[in-house]
Amino acid sequence: MAEETKVVRASVGTRLRRGLRFARTRVRELRMIGKALASTKHPILVHVIPMRQCNLACTYCNEYDDFSKPVPLEEMKTRLNLLSDMGTSIITISGGEPLMHPELDEVIRHIRRRGMIAGMITNGFYLNRERIERLNAAGLEHLQISIDNVVPDEVSKKSLKTLDGRLEMLAQYAVFQVNINSVLGSGVKDPEDALKIAQRAVQLGFTSTVGIIHDNNGQLKPLGEHEQEIFEAVMELGKRSFSRFNDFQHNVARGKEHEWRCRSGSRYLYICEDGLVHWCSQQRGYPGIPLAQYTPEMRHREYLTEKFCAARCTVSCVQQVGILDNWRDPQNLKPMPMAPASPPAELVQIGQGRGDS
Ligand code: SF4
Ligand code: SF4
Fold this sequence. Notes:
By secondary structure, the protein is an alpha/beta fold.
């Protein structure tokens, strides 16, 4: 695979712009941490879905369809204004495939205009030089691509082989931070792939993380001995990333239950394409309230609500947000799904499957 080891470098101008954007984002992240430690009244991280449709059809995924229309720009701006007014620090655009949204650049610009950190999760298939330059100009700060295997198969086309050219373009032209996520666990044919993907990510100057998939029943399952060795090697390679600061992934790898306080519905929100608030991508359906009607009191209740799925949770971004509050405010309320004000469209509670997040 000679072409996959090609080393590409950005121009001096791009490296200077990149250094500047990284430094500015780092300052904003430090402010975000200070604000989160000082008050528990605002969301730290929110996932928004401007586009449920996806150009791929990974067989494990429960987060896409092949027909949804893009959420109109004005509606996205209204939602972002509501989130900004709540004091939200970080917005991550997810999907479906967000790059299929025709006005995505404006969505990113609006996030930045409202003072929030702008990130995106994509399968990367629509990236080219022109699109990367547009994302630079819009003010994107973080981008994550999940790569499932080295060679595409019937489960997933998100492979190093299909995406390596796009990764090289990112290494050359992107001024935002790029993270490559690989996967280990149930259904992954060749665990060595995760290490090859992480090595390539680091070679191109990106950060790398590894996600662990639960089994088909949505349960935590320990990795085998060889998979655990690969897991530790990938974690070591990815030590520039935030995930090294917590041990939950090590617990997940060993199949151990994890003790933490999930603050979804409060410090973390998942806003679906219909504008409803959910705990997370894997627990859609609760509380199922339109964002415009989601009050500070509802957020506070969720902050203090114990989540029945926490001990066996594999959703890493919510666990990372949880670190900032795990030390305080025990959760002693029980989930009480609140009746939506208007009938939600096809709400589902999902304990199985996974997408990119
Ligand atoms: S995992 Fe990502 S790329 Fe694959 S179908 Fe789901 S949303 Fe699309
Ligand atoms: S699956 Fe994880 S992130 Fe989602 S609500 Fe349960 S504990 Fe929280």
